[in-house]
Predict the structure.
Amino acid sequence: MAAERPLGSRPARSPIGAGKKPPAAEQPKLEWQAIWDIVEAAGAESRETAPSRNSATYSSIKRMILAGQLGPGRKLVHEELAEALKVSRTPVREALERLYQEGFVTRLPRRGFYVTGITRDEAYGLYGAREALELFALQVTLERGPLSRTALNTLVASARRYEEFINAQVLTERILADMLFHLKLAELSGNRYVVRILAQTFERLALKRRHEGYRYDRSKLAATEHTRLLEMLAAHDKRGALTVLRKHILSARDALLSQLYELPHVSFDVL
């Protein structure tokens, strides 16, 4: 992964953001693997020593779903996936079964597998889980005392990277950078179970991210909220940090719910 470039001047309201819009080509590459690396580290007891063909196939299909290449309602045909991924049907079949167990794929009798979406009620529930997990993790972290300079610098770098992707208007990587900021914050609690479940919650929420016609107003507001949270953490203001984080999560929830409301109902196609 390329090193982050030095930031330029910043706008007055965002002390950690870049003020000058960098070309998209200069942005460091960020993919779903960065999230999965955190999940694997949090579940070290089940980590594979070397990725198998089955796990690689599973990761490839899951990445296409989360990136929107395979959208909600899309039928997943074994032969087509096997040809696209240059593998046999066996790893594809096992990958789809695993994705079905995780809720990313729906299996309909005599019709096959389809990409799953999430309803507004599911999104609301997932944000409730996210709120509980993040606030619990932050409370545990703050009860141990002020954050170290190293921890703060790591969070600042993550927040800065998020702003760089906003300025470059790179949607998928912006979403991933936001997830990484919150996962790194949760990691400070030392509770790997919370980190793992939180990452899986983010994955589920990503199923309904709308890419076309996306407005960056919410992203800019989120960057300001990140800055405010970092200020609270630097001052070791426990109540202030928890309040800012909770408002930040609820604001993100409301933004996504309004986005879901605008999407047409997804029906499973028959091909």
Summary: The first helix runs from residue 33 to 42. The first strand starts at residue 75 and ends at 76. The mean pLDDT is 81. DSSP finds ten helices and three strands in the chain.
